[in-house]
């Protein structure tokens, strides 16, 4: 460990920087990333983001089927593989994989029962506001960093949360490590920027990157932030991993899913127009970030069941593409009615093409309806046209039975309506 | 000179509920000066005719502009019937649009 640490400088106060890695940018990300990050070099903390707006809906449906579920199951598999390794290396794990059921995930982890873990699994609770929003399938306030910091200060080696802001997974450990105060706005803002860079995993290290032809983007390594006492940070990755950390790859991720430059969070308002990026021997240094007090309200992620949807894609090849589309549209409308149908004709066809695929246009149709029977009937109606429609009729894949779909909405509640809590198991 | 915007600009896009966000950045101060003058809200709508209400923000320190395309994704990713319901490739679409770029920036 000593050798790995060489070159990581301390601060003016003599505090070492805290080295925080990320091993997941979404529910479904590279399963081996946890092991890669633990084995690739020194880390103090390893974080993972498993929750998107859509994921909350998926977990909500899991929970409807089985109340003991509602967390990210892939994280449990990663811990079966890597928990002992993390403990052995002294790396703390901080993830939002608890989803709708952080306590349930914490109990599952304690069943893994590696030596010495008793009393060292922390979870954060209090984000679930379903009682306040009974019409929603899921209703979760975006909590912040302080309950994560509380868990770590109580001695947790593993912290699982439900809905916290993605950046909190990084801000919490940094705040606990340096003993930051709740009004250390600039420090909290600096760590929030580092957290924002890390939260989507390899999107910071050359994944999904416009100038991918300039780097080796075959298998980008997962990102690491070395955070200083003043909240500034160096973004880097383990030696020998793929991808790149450059001003451009970091800029790309800074621009992901932001709105106005005043980036509102539960702990601090971060001013993205104050962020400075500089090249650094190990990657990119982020400094200068200004923070100010957060809003009085917390954002709530609401998912409601919107109804049922189904879709298919008709392939229209060769001549008379518009007329072929017109015929099948009229036929499907006659069979099941026009309500809730959305049609899109993609003119991917080229005239006089020398492959069949290049001679073909795609007609997408989606149905959204409150009635599950109608969503299912859509499939039958579409397939019954197979010998009775335009010449060359075929579809890219036959439609299935239809699936429920969610509608996402944001709501806002006063802080005193939410009681977030750190619990040690 | 008429060239794809992506010759000199990078982009990243994504979803926030029913809105899409689209960040565009360039790699030199001179290119940013041009981009900031060139890529107005009106120009963006012209290049991406599917956009309706658009907010535009300047991030000079990152040599970047950030656009929020309100309502592009309807009620959000799970509900959207758009071809790209999470707006993941919106930025790459913009980069492929051909625009008049000053020769000294190429």
Strand content of chain B: 25-35%
Q: Would you identify the regions of chain A where 5 or more consecutive residues have pLDDT less than 50?
A: 1-14
Overall pLDDT level of chain A: 94
- The span between the termini of chain A is 29 Å
Overall residue-averaged pLDDT value of chain B: 95
> If you compute it from the alpha carbons, what radius of gyration of chain A comes out, rounded to the nearest whole angstrom?
25 Å
* Biggest pleated-sheet summary of chain B: 4 strands, antiparallel
Find the structural class of chain B using helix and strand composition.
alpha+beta
Q: Looking across the biggest beta sheet of chain A, what order are the strands in?
A: 11-12-8-7-1-2-3-6-4-19
- DSSP summary: helix tally of chain B: 3
Q: Class by helix and strand content of chain A?
A: alpha+beta
Helix content of chain B: 10-25%
Note the quaternary state here: heterodimer
Tell me the total number of β-strands of chain A: 19
Shape of chain A: globular
Separation, N- and C-terminal Cα atoms of chain B: 9 Å
Task: Count the beta strands of chain B.
Answer: 6
Please give the structural blueprint.
The complex is a heterodimer of chains A (425) and B (106).
Chain A: H1 2-5, E1 18-22, H2 33-39, E2 45-48, H3 53-65, H4 73-89, E3 92-95, H5 102-112, E4 121-125, E5 138-141, H6 146-153, E6 158-160, H7 168-178, H8 185-198, E7 223-227, E8 233-237, H9 247-254, E9 262-264, E10 269-271, E11 276-280, E12 283-287, E13 290-292, E14 297-317, H10 321-336, E15 341-346, E16 360-369, H11 372-383, E17 394-395, E18 403-414, E19 421-424
Parallel strand pairs in A: 1-2, 2-3, 3-6, 4-6
Antiparallel strand pairs in A: 1-7, 4-19, 5-14, 7-8, 8-12, 9-10, 10-13, 11-12, 14-16, 14-17, 14-18, 15-16
Chain B: E1 2-4, E2 10-16, E3 19-25, H1 29-38, H2 41-47, E4 53-59, E5 64-70, H3 90-96, E6 98-100
Antiparallel strand pairs in B: 1-6, 2-3, 3-5, 4-5
């Amino acid at each position: 460990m000593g050798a790995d640490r060489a070159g990581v400088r301390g601060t003016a106060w003599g505090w070492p920087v805290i080295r925080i890695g990320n091993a997941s940018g979404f529910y479904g990300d590279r399963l081996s990333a946890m092991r890669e990050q633990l084995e690739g070099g020194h880390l103090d903390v390893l974080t993972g983001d498993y929750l998107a707006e859509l994921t909350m809906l998926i977990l909500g449906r899991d929970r409807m089927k089985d109340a003991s579920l509602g967390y990210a199951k892939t994280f449990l598999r990663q811990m079966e593989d890597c928990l002992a390794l993390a403990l052995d290396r002294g790396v703390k794990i901080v993830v939002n994989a608890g989803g709708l059921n952080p306590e349930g995930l914490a109990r599952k982890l304690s069943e893994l029962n590696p030596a010495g873990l008793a009393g060292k699994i922390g979870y954060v609770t209090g984000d679930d506001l379903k009682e306040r929003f009974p019409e929603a399938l899921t209703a979760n306030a975006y909590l912040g960093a302080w309950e994560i910091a509380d868990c770590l200060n109580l001695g947790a080696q593993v912290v699982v949360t439900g809905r916290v802001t993605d950046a909190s997974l990084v801000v919490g450990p940094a705040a606990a490590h340096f003993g930051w105060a709740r009004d250390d706005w600039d420090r909290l803002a600096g760590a929030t920027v580092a957290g924002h860079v890390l939260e989507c995993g390899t999107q910071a290290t050359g994944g999904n990157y416009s100038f991918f032809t300039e780097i080796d983007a075959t298998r980008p390594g997962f990102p690491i932030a070395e955070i200083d006492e003043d909240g500034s940070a160096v973004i880097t990755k383990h030696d020998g991993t793929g991808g790149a950390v450059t001003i451009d790859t970091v800029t790309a991720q800074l621009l992901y899913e932001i709105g106005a430059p005043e980036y509102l969070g539960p702990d601090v308002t971060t001013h993205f127009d104050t962020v400075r990026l500089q090249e650094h021997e190990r990657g990119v240094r982020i400094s200068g970030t200004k923070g100010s007090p957060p809003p009085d309200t917390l954002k709530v992620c609401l998912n409601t069941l919107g109804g049922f949807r189904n879709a298919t894609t008709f392939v229209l090849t060769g001549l008379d593409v518009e007329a072929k589309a017109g015929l099948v549209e009229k036929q499907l409308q006659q069979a099941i009615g026009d309500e809730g149908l959305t049609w899109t004709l993609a003119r991917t066809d080229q005239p006089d093409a020398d492959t069949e695929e290049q001679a073909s246009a795609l007609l997408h149709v989606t149905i959204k309806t409150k009635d599950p029977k109608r969503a299912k009937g859509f499939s039958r109606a579409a397939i019954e046209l197979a010998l009775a429609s335009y010449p060359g009729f075929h579809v890219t894949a036959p439609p299935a039975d239809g699936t429920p779909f969610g509608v996402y909405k944001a709501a806002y509640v006063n802080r005193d309506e939410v009681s977030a809590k750190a619990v040690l198991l | 000179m008429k060239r794809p915007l992506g010759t000199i600009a990078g982009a990243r896009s994504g979803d926030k509920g029913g809105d899409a966000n689209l960040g565009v950045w360039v790699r030199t101060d001179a290119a940013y000066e041009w981009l900031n003058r060139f890529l107005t809200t009106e120009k963006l709508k012209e290049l991406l005719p599917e956009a309706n209400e658009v907010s535009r923000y300047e991030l000079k320190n990152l040599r970047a502009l950030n656009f929020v395309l309100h309502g592009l994704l309807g009620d959000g990713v799970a509900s959207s019937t758009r071809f790209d319901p999470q707006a993941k490739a919106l930025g790459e679409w913009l980069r492929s649009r051909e625009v008049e770029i000053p020769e000294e920036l190429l």
